[in-house]
Amino acid sequence: MAAERPAKRSHVVGRRVVAGIVAAAIGAAAAIGIGQINVQDAIREVTLPLRHDDIIRQQARDKEVDASLIAAVIEAESGFDSEARSPQGARGLMQVTPATALDIAERSEGTSFVLSDLENPDINVRYGTFHLDELLAMYEGNETAALAAYNAGSGNVSEWGGGDLELSDIRFPETRVYVEQVLEQREDYRDSYPEELGL
Q1: In sequence order, which ranges of 64-115 are alpha helices (DSSP H)?
Q2: I want to staple 11 with a disulfide (CB 3.0 to 4.6 A). Which of 52, 79, 133, 134 is the partner?
Q3: What's the domain count of the chain?
Q4: 174 an active-site residue?
């Protein structure tokens, strides 16, 4: 979150290739009469996964953050891998850095918090959403600025225009791609999982 990271589009592209293979396999299975499988659901599961929707819904309600935005951040950050780690030390579903987690724990009186807790989906999404909510408040609801800060740090966003930041102002190509990806996938999550996300 705080340091610049390469964009994480490889798992998205890879899933689209896999989705094509899955669709072909399901089609072949259906043609020879092996089971009744919903092709659309199978493809959606590969191309736009959703896990821990109960936790996402709860944190969206508690912190008044759009559930589809939380899901899109998780997809962009970790591909819903709760054990993911970045070279900068960010951990878990929302790739929370140790420094950010310790700051949140201290301010929220999380006295028993240890860094390995970031692999717990409930804690990770709670802390990640807390941080995202703070960034949205800091930039007065400017999602582009908040997402850019989530990816590249608020120091960079301040240099690029702060709360007035637009996509074209983002100087790191990787961060620009990240923000575009999250905003695009938020719409996909809204369309694909309205019931699961409580929308």
Answers
A1: 67-78, 98-107
A2: 79
A3: 1
A4: no
